[in-house]
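User: two proteins, same treatment. go.

Assistant:
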Amino acid sequence: MTSEATAAPDRPARDRPVAELVRNTAYWRWVTATMLHRLPPIMGPIALTLASTHYLGSPAAGGLLAGVATLPCILAAPLFSRLLERLGRERWTPRTLAVGGSARLAVAAGFVTHAPVWALFVLSLVGNMATFGVGGAIRTLLRTTVPRRLIGSALSLDAVLVELVVVGAPFVVVLCALLGPAYALAAMGAAMLANALLLWPRPKPVRESEPEEAAAGTGEDDGIAPDVPDSAGLWRNPAFLFWALVTMAFGHFLGTAEVGALPRVALDGGGAGEAAVLTGVLGAVSALAGLCYAWYATRIGVGLTVRAVALLLTMTAATLVIATVPGWWGLVTGFALLGSCAAPLNSVMTEAPGYVIPHSRMPEGFSVLVAAQSIGYSLAGGLLAVVSVRHMLLLGPATAVVALAGAVLLRPARVSAALAAASR
């Protein structure tokens, strides 16, 4: 599967990529935008349940809005991203966020005024579609924010900050709910509106290009697959299909660990406290691994596909340890090993597709990957509903096995042949 498109490119590496990113104000604007973009989906289930219980007397409506109003938006996000690309990504991404933020503010007002559930459902659909629909577009903006040779480090550092969002979002809900449950919903809308302001188009100053960026303009290989034809598409693109499988496997691994943490510790007589510690170990080790990967990403001498295969194999071993090794320290070891691969794999699988997707299909492609990860995560919960906890954990690597098979079946010859055929 390793090809020029997904191999580690010969970038003019510098010794301190993280330090270079820290000094890049445009990168931190993008990071802030991604963090604000991720807040509403994480805050949503808790905030909607609190509001539904407080204003309607039952959590049922909150569960409906958090679940039924979210899944269609995840599945429709790739089509929405494609429409956004045709309309103009840079112009319409902030406008879409503004509409979505206004819809979320209207949901908060709807709960306070006891609006009918169907109205809350429609407003939630608008807010969710804006959230999930622009995800691919925001990721694509990174290519115009940092030098291309720093994309891997930039994504890895971003993955570390995602952990802060995941951990901090529930606390934001709790703090806002102290004023009233509607304030937590209003905070979700405010986050989207602030995101729209951050991404609103601004005049670009004329400056001298960096050597590697100037090389990109002259056709020199800078690590981005050159001239991937639009006709290569997504679903006939073997390289993209491989990374979609990797992304689904990643979601399945995380879902297996996070959904299965409490029932797994219960098998050994533990409870919610032990499960919370294991989830904390997963997040802390993932953040540390992400920082290390961000620092060394430009110095690793193997291709992105090889990295993904190695990380998937390690996560498979970690999940099997969680499923089979008895005792507390066995669980801590398994969750720590899984966390050591989480942020690096997240960075790899977010960077690599940018080298094999046609430029005109970038937002759509990244939205497909977001949907694939969500499906993988949901698969873990679905398995827990039909099989025992131990079997659910043993099946955690199932999608990874499919992805690893894809690394063999979707080999470089097939990728090259597909791109060559599409360019004719």
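Protein 2:
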Amino acid sequence: MEHALSTATLSELRRPRTYPAVSVLTPTHRREPENSQDPVRLRNVVAEAKKQLEADPAVPRERRVDVSRQLDQALAEIDLAHVEDGLVIFAAPGEHQVWSLAREVPERVVLSDTFLTRNLVSAQASERPFWVLSVSADHITLWNGGVDRVSEHRGGGFPLTRSRENFDAERQERIGDLPSTFRDEGTRHFLREADSALGRLLHEDPRPLYVTGETAALSALDDVGGATRNAVHVPHGGLAHGTPDAVWQTVRPLVAEEARKSTEAVARELESARGRRAFAAGVDEIWQSAREGRLRLLAVEENYRVTVRDGGGDHLMPADSGDLDAREDIVDEIVEQCLETGADVRFVPDGTLGGADGIAGILRY
């Protein structure tokens, strides 16, 4: 199952496909007893996707068989013991993907010539993703961080490993020769290589960056690097060969502190916008402003959900989840639209926005 959504991956997912490109969404649960319903619900929504394929006259038999097979293969790959809050299955002729999201999604089947990506985009934004670079003299690991975990990122040149005759970085740490290790030109070249690879990655997928390592390693990386100079330094060695949990426990307090500072900054900006008449709130006003590209900043409470329908006259009306014309993921629509128009999207703890009904923004004009 996929977790990390890069700019390149999103672009590939949005590429037009030969019809039908099938998107299957279903909510899932991490804990008992709620997760007991997940297997039946998942099978039923996949069966519904096959039913729609069967009933669609625009789908030739050969493609229908292919896409149905892709759905079966995706279903077989899903491990419900390790799901989060939502699952998304993409299937098209010759391909399929399964995405696990740390954000609830509505149950839905969509047949189109592109995959439905708005829920992935919103989930990625809500996770406040970050990078962790763990440095030693012989091994450099990059970790992909999210709301409650990190996992090793493999790709873009990472991990980097250096081997050399008579070179034992761990022994040099034990005998106190680490500073000279990081003054060695071979080591510095190794660090420059890592910095260059990281710079390319940050250009494609910019995120906050934490760098872990011995003090001498952090200092040497600062001397030779450019991409890591604005990173948060964490003087903790051994994590280049560490476990995801060890890395998460090390950076967790720093991530929580940065999230707290970010929330306070958003609250201050919103309060200032009120005085300048640049403040918008409520799903209807925010939706209109997002469509017009007028939002500079969007703030959404983490668990804010609302179901609406088109009320005519460019307004949204409250709706029930079962209504035929209900739009259950309007918040995710707004998030994707804002990101498309260059707005800064921030998810904040529930209650942060006070009387703003869970969603607020700052207007560009």
